[in-house]
Write a structure and sequence with these properties.
globular; 531 residues; 17 helices; 5-stranded antiparallel β-sheet; 39% helix; alpha+beta
Length: 531
């Protein structure tokens, strides 16, 4: 079998690969996981299948490589995949050479069955964790691997939550979660003819195939087109031992930035959820809390997070976007990458880091390569007006546009020559085409670090998330914003810096960051002339 790389599998953790992994062969995610492990951060062990296996070139090799990889993980963790007493569960994650936030697929809790659920329960002494992981695995497998629609499963969950008189799925007890998992299995089988594999190895093989397959998904293709990444060869697949952010009140998951990627302001910037797995945060479907809450509940974890993120920024000499999980008070680092940032933030970050002595002027210029410095002006609305609602500021900018509820409406309104404000309950990365069309985005739920907010910042779109006053009726293409009613085509204005929402159309004024631009001009004057 011929590969683009001679070694189609690599290992991260005790006894793992000694040489650094390259982003070309194993994806940027795995390369950075290897580096975090080498830096001494607490990283769950993993193995990686190379980008050479993506596309039509796998030729049956994956099953053999998975057995090799599982042997490594079992040795590193002291657990066994599919075991009834000390079960190993894994996450199956994508990772291209260049970061594509939320565009490729992930399947968590792989290896979960009715038998391993009871093993996990005995291992952790936590029945709720076991059955929560089981229902999560079935949800992920049905959506990602089987390609089933999410809405019917959400309806089953809502019905059970109502019957149990709970406020959300977090209010369901272990017995209710066990019933929820069973109802999911019944819906998949009876409604769609989809059978969730009972054999953990079949689960893993199918999850890996689904992640490779996601490279050709429409949203991934559109993202690569928008970001001029059509040359990339494919995605790698990282299989990593699970750590459990959903293990209780001293557990959780989150995303942290070493500096504010929207404004460039210094200081750790983080969103997290307690008793949650990472997908709960980055999906934008739940409302996260901030770093202050983590410091109040688990100060040691907050301190270790700040130290680890700062160490990563020092090492990479650039702003980092870090995914983390803490399980029963122990912090794990799952991913780091160069943070997507707005042009304005890119300018401030480069200037600040040079002024701090963290990087050289030449490195500052390198950070600004490809940044449109004509788009760095700070904008604001002229005149006074009372906001009709507030949300969480996720991406700066002041913009007025006509209301649209989906890609179809956005295309129709932009074709008429008007800017568009996209209104959504939450923004999934499936909405990439609509995000690209919109001048601004407003959502009912979600946090600053959700994948869609990251993409909005990268695209330079004003974005306000977590606006609880927004209630959308997609069927009628109308929305309520507090006491006001909006229809498609109505004018709305967003201040992505303040998180404010205004009715109607407003004029915008701008101010250039003269001091920062002058600093960059000085670097260029002082830069040596190429020979």
């Amino acid at each position: 079998m011929k590969h683009d790389t001679p070694h189609p599998i690599a290992f991260i953790g005790p006894g793992g690969s000694k040489a650094p992994l390259t982003a070309h062969d194993f994806g940027s995610k795995a390369a950075q996981i290897w580096r975090m492990n080498a830096l001494g951060l607490d990283v769950p062990p993993a193995f990686v299948l190379s980008t050479a296996l993506c596309g039509d070139r796998r030729e049956g090799a994956v099953r053999r490589l998975l057995e090799e990889g599982l042997g490594f993980l079992e040795s590193a963790t002291g657990r066994r995949f599919g075991d009834r007493r000390r079960p190993l569960l894994v996450s199956v994650r994508s990772g291209a050479e260049k970061s594509m936030p939320g565009m490729l697929e992930t399947v968590l809790d792989v290896g979960m069955t009715a038998e391993t659920a009871r093993g996990l329960m005995r291992l952790h002494g936590n029945p709720r964790l076991a059955f929560d992981c089981h229902r999560r695995f079935i949800e992920g497998w049905c959506e990602v691997v089987a390609g089933l629609p999410r809405a019917p499963f959400e309806a089953v969950q809502r019905d059970l939550i109502a019957a149990e008189q709970a406020l959300s799925e977090q209010g369901l007890d272990p017995e209710a979660l066990e019933r929820l998992a069973a109802r999911y299995l019944d819906l998949a089988r009876d409604g769609y003819g989809a059978i969730v594999p009972a054999d953990p190895r079949d689960q893993l093989a199918e999850a890996v195939e689904a992640v490779f397959r996601s490279w050709a998904a429409p949203k991934a293709i559109e993202y690569r087109r928008l970001n001029h990444l059509e040359h990339l060869a494919g995605t790698a697949v990282t299989v990593q031992a699970m750590v459990y952010g959903n293990a209780g009140v001293r557990s959780g998951s989150g995303v942290a930035f070493s500096r504010n990627p929207a404004s460039g302001a210094p200081g750790l910037y983080a969103d997290l959820l307690f008793d949650a797995q990472g997908e709960d945060v980055v999906s934008g479907r739940r409302q996260p809390v901030g770093l202050d809450r983590l410091g109040a509940v688990l100060p040691d974890v907050a301190s270790a997070l700040a130290e680890g993120v700062a160490a990563l920024e020092r090492h990479y000499r650039d702003v980092q976007d870090v995914e983390f999980t803490f399980e029963e008070g122990r912090l794990y680092f799952l991913q780091t990458r160069a943070a997507k940032r707005t042009p304005r933030a890119a300018l401030k970050i480069a200037v600040d880091m040079v002024a701090e002595g963290a990087i050289t002027p030449a490195e500052g210029l390198a950070l600004l390569e490809g940044v449109d410095l004509s788009a760095v002006a700070a904008t604001s609305f002229s005149g006074d007006a009372e906001p009709v609602a507030h949300g969480v500021a996720a991406s700066p900018g002041t913009v007025s546009g006509r209301v649209a509820f989906d890609e179809e409406g956005a295309r129709r309104l932009t074709a008429a020559g008007d800017p568009v404000i996209l209104l959504r309950p939450d923004v999934a990365t499936d909405d990439i085409a609509a995000l690209a069309l919109a001048a601004g985005i407003l959502t009912s739920v979600g946090g600053r670090t959700a994948h869609a907010a990251v993409v909005a910042r990268q695209l330079g779109r004003a974005c306000v998330v977590g606006c609880s006053a927004l209630v959308i009726d997609g069927a009628s293409r109308r929305a309520r914003l507090g006491a006001e009613t909006l229809g498609e085509g109505d004018w709305l204005s967003l201040d992505g810096e303040a998180g404010s929402v205004f009715l109607g159309r407003r004029a915008v004024v701008s101010e250039e960051p003269q001091a920062e631009l002058a600093a960059v001009a000085g670097w260029r004057v002082a830069a040596p002339t190429p020979a």
